[in-house]
Design brief:
The complex is a heterodimer of chains A (409) and B (367).
Chain A: H1 2-24, E1 29-37, H2 44-63, E2 67-69, E3 72-82, H3 87-100, E4 105-107, H4 112-125, E5 129-131, E6 147-149, H5 159-171, E7 180-185, H6 189-205, E8 208-214, H7 223-232, E9 236-240, H8 242-255, E10 262-265, H9 268-271, H10 273-277, E11 285-288, E12 297-298, E13 302-303, H11 304-314, H12 323-342, H13 347-355, E14 358-361, E15 364-367, E16 380-385, E17 388-393
Helix pairs in contact in A: 2-12, 3-4, 5-6, 12-13
Chain B: H1 2-10, H2 22-41, H3 46-69, H4 77-93, H5 98-102, H6 114-143, H7 148-167, E1 178-179, H8 187-213, H9 216-226, H10 228-233, H11 238-264, E2 266-267, H12 269-273, H13 276-290, H14 297-315, H15 320-334, H16 338-346, H17 362-366
Antiparallel strand pairs in B: 1-2
The chains are: A alpha/beta (409), B mainly alpha (367).
Chain lengths: 409, 367
């Protein structure tokens, strides 16, 4: 009998030890985030940038011990589907993620159009989505309660370049009314909202629009617009068409030797224009949501520069880290933060925690308005100078002076 | 004359599908049963099965023109998009300013009450159906002068052009599209609501077409397919028949567009409303796969196509388009008459087709 007690005591002790040890080193449970994003089609370049950002942040959070809720901890796992860059697939894939895969926490797709298709689904199932790649203001005036965006809205993308052109004209003794503006935009929710922002600023500063074109639907040729540019010689050329549009613009500006003194286009980094077009990309103005030279700092990744270094070490082929990846990572950080504060996996409680987000990250401050967009972070304008992206506006962030006129190659 | 009579006896393209055979009833019963039991057994697949019924509707409406009348339209997707836009604009326009609602910069949010939502959907679908039919009449007047490949390309041009035109029309949001009013109930409730409407629309299309093909009208459009000049010489008013046939396609396609827009929750012209390279071609591929010119072909083709598509999209991501390409090539090269067309040739009795023995056959020789 004594023998038996001794053995059983030992067994209990071992079990207890194993218990504590398994508690201390417990592998966290998986918590699945879902996303239908573009791996193929016209938004695939950025879709993959965003996926890399999501994956890097999820890995980072897991390495830091996951997300702790009570005495449990959770590792992020992300389930993806390819939306083929069309909003017609988005609804079907999100339904599948929600109903068939049982996913209750979502990261956004790439592009405003697909995010616009995603928002009503989230609203329908009352499931929160933190998105990082849908910037159109039309996402935030429909009263959606389950959509949160970490990025600045799209009317701000090219507006500062319009102000800059007006400022330079005044300095050179020209009237703003003499500044001719040429524009070419993709016909999608994002670029149309960029255009709306530009038109507001053009009106405010009194510039003159001479070309207002739409890019073709597959974004593979804009020579018609550029031919007009050669004839009408505008002072400012504005282009927005996601990465594919930027790549087309970069290529044809080089081929057609466009010598407009000031050219601003969205998505330069994502389209890798410096790598692809070398010197001819010099002088292009590129609005960005984030730059590695900014003095942002956060708990997970450290500073913006640290993130830049880690990202380049983790993925091949990046000379510059596109802001699309940075903001995707920020979205994952927002999820981790909100779940931690909610101390619950209940989607309603997490939604409430999300709406109270006030987070400092490497990507900048994140704080949502009642409509769900981030109002705590500015956009900056960079210029490609000798193959490097240097911040030239707004003046409080500027590290370099703008080259004007642009040195045409 | 005798030669013609002999030819008639050989071809398996007689009046058979004009009557209802027991096999028809069994098939129809099975489909209705699946339609009712499907979402109850697999509630998580409701959305996908709803899309399946839309695919069935697509293939059937394409077949009215392509199969029964011999006019291969590549632009039928136009009526899908037109219906989608008409339905959405009606849903919004009944209760608020459309231009303001679609504006991306300063459009205020407008919340629809449940009553407004349901009235909007009902009136919207009605307008979508009628509006699409009227558009078909107007367009038919222009394109029915074209034949064969010219007709196909002409209609494709209509679908592509419509996407660009709507994309430039700011009042309906242009390329920015329109977010659809949010359904005022639970998520599952919405799926089920639209499931019922999609299923109902597909079945209504089937029953209507089955009836239509049994009438003189069905014979007339078949005559147009077989020889338009002769049909005209026989006194068939070809233009009128062609126009009505297209308007019928457009009527049901308009409804399907309105439904798909509401299910997707966001519409825009290029990818959602006028997707000529995807849905626009799928409807042709599905009808060909099943067997064009038969009543069951489009239905079976659509079901098979949709299942293969969803399976490859889920399990062979990246290969889905390759798989679809292979199916289409195999279909076109080896099975031009499609699955049902092949079956009909092999087992005509299943389809209620009586193949008469030649009077000068074996029997006569034995005597």
């Amino acid at each position: 009998m004594r023998h038996f007690t001794k053995w059983s005591l030992a067994a209990v002790a071992t079990a207890a030890m194993m218990g504590t040890s398994s508690l201390a080193y417990a592998a966290c449970e998986d918590l699945t985030l879902g996303s239908a994003i573009s791996f193929t089609g016209k938004y695939s370049t950025n879709g993959i940038h965003a996926k890399n950002g999501y994956d890097l942040a999820a890995k980072k959070i897991n390495e830091m011990g996951g997300v702790k809720v009570g005495d449990k901890c959770y590792n992020f796992k992300i389930k993806y589907y390819d939306d083929e860059s069309t909003p017609a697939r988005t609804a079907q894939l999100l339904e599948r993620l929600i109903k068939q895969d049982g996913v209750k926490y979502f990261l956004g797709p790439y592009s405003s159009a697909t995010t616009k298709a995603a928002a009503p689904i989230m609203e329908k199932y009352k499931i929160p989505m933190v998105e990082a790649e849908g910037a159109s203001r039309s996402l935030f005036n429909k009263g959606y309660k389950y959509l949160f965006a970490v990025l600045s809205t799209s009317e701000q993308y090219l507006a500062s370049s319009v102000a800059l052109a007006a400022e330079i004209a005044k300095k050179n003794g020209k009237k703003p009314g003499d500044v001719k503006v040429a524009m070419a935009f993709e016909n999608d929710p994002f670029s149309l909202d960029v255009r709306a922002g530009v038109l507001d600023d053009v009106k405010k500063h009194g510039l003159k629009v001479v070309i207002d074109d739409k890019l073709p639907r597959d974004l593979s040729d804009m020579s018609a617009t550029l031919t007009k540019v050669k004839a009408l010689k505008p002072d400012l050329l504005l282009i927005s068409g996601h990465s594919k549009g930027a790549a087309t613009a970069g290529r044809q500006i080089k081929e057609l030797k466009i010598d407009t003194p000031m050219i601003a286009l969205t998505h330069c980094e994502a389209a890798k224009v410096t790598v692809k077009y070398g010197d001819s990309a010099n002088g292009l103005l590129c609005p960005t949501q984030w730059a590695e030279t900014l003095s942002y700092k956060g708990a997970a990744f450290g500073s913006a520069a640290d993130y830049d270094k880690l990202f380049k070490a983790s993925f091949d082929g990046y000379k510059n880290v596109p802001y699309q990846s940075a903001q995707a990572s920020a979205a994952v950080l927002v999820w981790a933060d909100a779940i931690k504060r909610a101390q619950s996996l209940d989607t309603e409680k997490i939604r409430d925690a999300l709406s109270k987000t006030d987070l400092k990250t490497f990507y900048g401050s994140i704080k949502f308005s009642a409509a769900g967009n981030n109002i705590a972070k500015p956009m900056v304008l960079r210029q490609i100078q000798d193959g490097k992206y240097n911040v030239v506006a707004p003046s409080e962030w500027a590290s370099h002076k703008i080259d004007f006129p642009r040195k045409a190659q | 004359m005798t030669i013609v009579a002999n030819e008639r006896a050989d071809t398996v393209e007689p009046t058979a599908r004009r009557m209802i055979t027991p096999n028809d009833l069994i098939m129809f019963g099975a489909i209705v049963l699946f339609g009712i039991v499907g979402p109850l057994l697999f509630p998580n697949y409701t959305f996908q099965i709803a899309v399946l019924w839309l695919m069935v509707l697509f293939a059937q409406t394409w077949d009215v023109m392509g199969g029964q009348m011999g006019y291969n339209s590549l632009g039928n997707i136009f009526f899908f998009g037109a219906g989608m836009y008409i339905c959405t604009v009606t849903q919004i326009g009944l209760f608020t300013d459309v231009g303001l609602y679609t504006s991306s910069s300063d459009g205020g949010s407008f919340l629809f009450t449940p009553d407004q939502y349901y009235i909007g959907v009902a009136v919207g679908l009605l307008f979508a159906a009628i509006g699409s039919s009227l558009l078909a009449v107007a367009l038919g007047w222009i394109v029915f002068g074209l034949r064969g490949p010219y007709f196909a390309i002409g209609t494709l041009g209509i679908a592509l052009g419509a996407g660009e035109l709507v994309g430039a029309w700011e009042w309906v949001g242009g390329g920015g599209g329109i977010p659809i009013p949010v359904y005022p109930g639970s998520g599952d409730g919405k799926s089920f609501f639209y499931y019922c409407l999609c299923f109902g629309a597909a079945m209504a299309t089937f029953v209507f077409l089955k009836w239509l093909y049994s009438t003189r009208f069905g014979l007339a459009i078949n005559a147009i397919r077989d020889d338009e000049e002769k049909a005209e010489a026989m006194g068939v008013h070809t233009m009128r028949h062609k126009t009505v046939a297209w308007a019928i396609s457009a009527f049901f396609l308009g409804i399907s567009g309105g439904l798909f827009g509401n299910m997707t929750g966001f519409i825009e012209p290029l990818e959602v409303a006028f997707p000529a390279p995807t849905f626009g071609l799928f409807m042709v591929a599905m009808a060909l796969l099943g067997g064009k010119g038969t009543i069951w072909g489009p239905v079976i083709g659509a079901i098979l196509f949709h299942i293969v598509k969803e399976a490859t999209w889920t399990y062979f991501l990246g290969w889905q388009w390759v798989a679809l390409g292979v199916i289409i090539i195999v279909n076109i090269v080896f099975f031009q008459q499609g699955i049902v067309g092949w079956l009909q040739e092999k087992y005509p009795a299943w389809f209620g087709i009586e193949v008469e023995e030649r009077p000068s056959g074996v029997k006569g020789a034995a005597e």
